[in-house]
């Protein structure tokens, strides 16, 4: 039974990753808006769902979550993404949508808990952060098909290296399903419109 469970888990992971990768590819292929409202919700992998629940333990279990990946040493992309995230949390509140934002660091070697706590304060009180390391971080990134690339990072340079990463963001429903995939930099107004015009999504 244990082996069967592992096989099923492996099949689920491959299916989930393949479906998400196809959706992300389709979203990035267009030159216009890349927001993807999923007709069928994609459930998060169990480990990722558990991690998200732990971040919001003791808080409103009926909250939706906006998730974006980045790092605190980012000079332009991440601040812009977080500013959009903060704006969307406020826009959601204006529409009486229970919503919170989460910043997931892809650079835990430089982003300590103290650094992240201070960093996100500049963008609003409804934003949280998640810091994972090693294999746990790699699995969490893979659960969202998030790609990263580190340049000039080595034993002699652990502070002044460069990082590239995707700007894809995710809207997760209270049950732990991915409902919307969008670009954190360019599609914030699409999500704001979604809050106003698609109320049934948030009542389902």
What does this structure look like?
By secondary structure, the protein is of the alpha/beta class. 44% of the residues lie in helices and 23% in strands. The chain has a single domain (2-203), classed as 3-Layer(aba) Sandwich (Glutaredoxin), CATH 3.40.30. The strands form two sheets. It has a six-stranded mixed beta sheet, sandwiched between helices. The chain has a two-stranded antiparallel sheet with strand order 5-6. Cu cation binds at residues 74, 78, 165. InterPro entries: SCO1/SenC, Thioredoxin-like_sf. Disulfide bonds join 74-78. This is Electron transport protein SCO1/SenC. It comes from Nitrosospira multiformis (strain ATCC 25196 / NCIMB 11849 / C 71).
- Could you list the spans in which at least 5 consecutive residues all have pLDDT below 50? 1-15, 25-33
The CATH homologous superfamily is named Glutaredoxin
What is the C-level CATH assignment?
Answer: Alpha Beta
Query: How much strand content do the residues show?
Result: 15-25%
What percent of residues adopt helix (DSSP H or I)?
40-55%
Helix/strand order, N-terminal first: HEHEHEHEHEEEEHH
DSSP summary: helix tally? 7
Overall mean confidence score, pLDDT: 81
Q: Assign the CATH topology.
A: Glutaredoxin
Backbone CA Rg = 17 Å
Strand order of the largest sheet: 1-8-7-2-3-4
Largest sheet features: 6 strands, mixed
Annotation, overall tally of beta strands: 8
Q: Give the name of the CATH architecture.
A: 3-Layer(aba) Sandwich
Name the overall outline.
globular
User: What is the total number of structural domains?
Assistant: 1
User: How far is the N terminus from the C terminus?
Assistant: 35 Å
Q: What structural category do the secondary elements indicate?
A: alpha/beta
């Amino acid at each position: 039974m244990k082996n069967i469970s592992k096989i099923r888990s492996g099949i689920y992971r491959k299916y989930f990753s393949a479906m998400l990768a196809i959706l992300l590819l389709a979203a990035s292929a267009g030159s216009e808006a890349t927001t993807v409202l999923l007709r069928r919700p994609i459930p998060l992998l169990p480990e990722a769902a558990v991690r998200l629940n732990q971040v919001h333990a003791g808080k409103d279990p009926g909250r939706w979550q906006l998730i974006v990946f980045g790092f605190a040493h980012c000079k332009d992309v991440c601040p812009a993404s977080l500013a959009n995230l903060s704006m969307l949390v406020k826009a959601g509140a204006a529409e009486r949508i229970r919503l919170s934002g989460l910043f997931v660091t892809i650079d835990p070697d430089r982003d300590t808990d103290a650094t992240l706590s201070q960093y996100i304060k500049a963008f609003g009180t409804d934003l949280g952060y998640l810091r994972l390391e090693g294999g746990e971080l790699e699995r969490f990134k893979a659960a969202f098909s998030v790609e990263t690339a580190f340049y000039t990072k080595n034993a002699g340079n652990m502070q002044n290296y460069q990082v590239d990463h995707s700007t894809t963001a995710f809207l997760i429903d209270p049950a732990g399903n991915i409902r919307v995939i969008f670009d954190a930099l360019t599609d914030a107004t699409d999500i704001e419109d979604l809050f106003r015009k698609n109320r049934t999504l948030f009542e389902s």
